[in-house]
Sequence to fold (230 residues):
Amino acid sequence: MECRSQDFLRKSRRCASIGHGTAYAIVDDMRVLDSFRSIRASGRERVSTLAGDSIVPFPRQSLTYAITVACPPHEVWPWLAQMGSGGRAGWYSYDRLDNAGRHSADHIHSRWQDVTLGSTFPPLPGIENMRLVDFEREANMVLAWGPQRDLPPTISWAFVLEPRRAGETRLIARARATYGTTAQAVPFWMTWPLVHLGHFLMQRKQLLGIAMRAERVTSPGRQPLGRDAA
Fold:
């Protein structure tokens, strides 16, 4: 019995050590990633009023992230204009989750560049209830989603392009959400951690994807990606 207890303790300590090591490795990996390319919004960016804030004026959840892109706003805008699942360019995030496994476009499609108010940006294939509700070309774009078209939107998703010196752009993404009457039965404290984590992972992948694509096209030191003619 004593030998079994000692063996159990040794295995427990080993598992705990592996668990702690894995956790530290994940944290260190995230620190390394952030040291190279952060999507952390500054304090000013998190509290500033951005385009689209009035769409969901009293959000239960608001998340703001940002990335610096090494090219001017007019070179970033086309990648925003063609976003969307299904028959559009994709969301530049985890394609298996939000684009039915179809790889997001690596080049600019001119047929998706002429956006207008009311243009549809499908969040998932076959879902058409996310629409463009406000935009200023090469400056900002605001998408909104609601369970029904005749009701106020419950989610807004803004992309803001702020020009920086040396031809750079600060791309700020802000998501704001409230709940319709059917969702209020779910406790906020239960949904918030999951929503926060899921949104962070998807948003991070998207912002990195947009920056990488825009910079590959404009960087003279790299092979430009293709640009379609129609």
DSSP finds five helices and five strands in the chain. The first strand starts at residue 61 and ends at 69.
